[in-house]
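User: I've been trying to design a sequence by hand for this structure and keep getting stuck. Would you show me what you'd pick, starting by listing the structure so we're on the same page?

Assistant: Good idea, let's start from the same input. This is the structure you sent:
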């Protein structure tokens, strides 16, 4: 729930991001990001991983040192175009609305579509870099949307317009503020906007625990959803499996 999420979907094991370092400080633009918690499960125990959905490779709360060592043990890495070039090793880079296919054990295909993401306010891209989200689609199943690191903006609304069968939306929330008094991931208001657009979806929240720059928790989101009458939040706990019926 803090950083990465393991999704088991139609026989595949899919990991969002890969952060497995022990607690430590990371330098960022003259400041330090503090990581507070060790991974609740050793990365080797997560294998096999059929796909890693990496929102971007340039920030330690998405891909850290141990995560980089882990990636070659997985079957495929799907990330941004630039990230794929930097990582090499057959990583697949997606731009918004481009797709890649992962075969399923039952002979069907998982179609992964890249989606727009903006890692902060307007004009932030030269600072935070390229990011991407993902929609996972299987014929006959509800879609899963993984926002990647993004705030709410018009690109997220376009995802909702293009994909009206999302059964689970995984929001990178936490109101992260690594560089100053502005958010680079969704806060509770952004999450409410997303939940109202993906009105048939269960909502899960990650990137809200274990780092100094995460300013809002999953509990904050639960309180905000309660106030506005949204009862579709799936509460997550580290290393605890949750069965989400889509």
């Amino acid at each position: 729930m803090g950083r990465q999420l393991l999704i088991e979907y139609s026989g595949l094991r899919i990991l969002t991001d890969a952060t497995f370092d022990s607690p430590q400080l990371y330098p960022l633009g003259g400041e330090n990001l503090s990581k507070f918690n060790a991974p609740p499960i050793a990365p080797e125990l997560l294998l096999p991983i059929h796909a890693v959905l990496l929102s971007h490779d340039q920030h330690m709360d998405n891909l850290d040192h141990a995560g980089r060592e882990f990636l070659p043990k997985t079957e495929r890495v799907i990330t941004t175009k630039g990230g794929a070039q930097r990582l090499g090793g057959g990583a697949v880079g997606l731009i918004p609305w481009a797709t890649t296919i992962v075969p399923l054990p039952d002979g069907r295909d998982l179609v992964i579509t890249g989606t727009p993401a903006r890692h902060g306010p307007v004009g932030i891209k030269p600072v935070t870099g390229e990011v991407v989200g993902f929609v996972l689609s299987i014929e006959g199943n509800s879609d899963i949307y993984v926002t990647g690191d993004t705030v709410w903006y018009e690109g997220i609304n376009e995802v909702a317009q293009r994909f009206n069968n999302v059964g689970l939306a995984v929001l990178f929330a936490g109101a992260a503020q690594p560089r100053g008094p502005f958010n680079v991931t969704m806060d509770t208001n952004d999450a409410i906007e997303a939940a109202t657009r993906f009105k048939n979806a269960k909502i899960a929240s990650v990137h809200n625990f274990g780092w100094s720059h995460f300013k809002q928790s999953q509990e904050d989101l639960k309180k905000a959803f309660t106030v506005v009458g949204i009862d579709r939040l799936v509460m997550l706990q580290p290393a605890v499996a949750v069965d989400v019926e889509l």
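That's my pick for every position. To get oriented when you compare it with your attempt: The chain has one domain: 5-234. The first strand starts at residue 5 and ends at 9.
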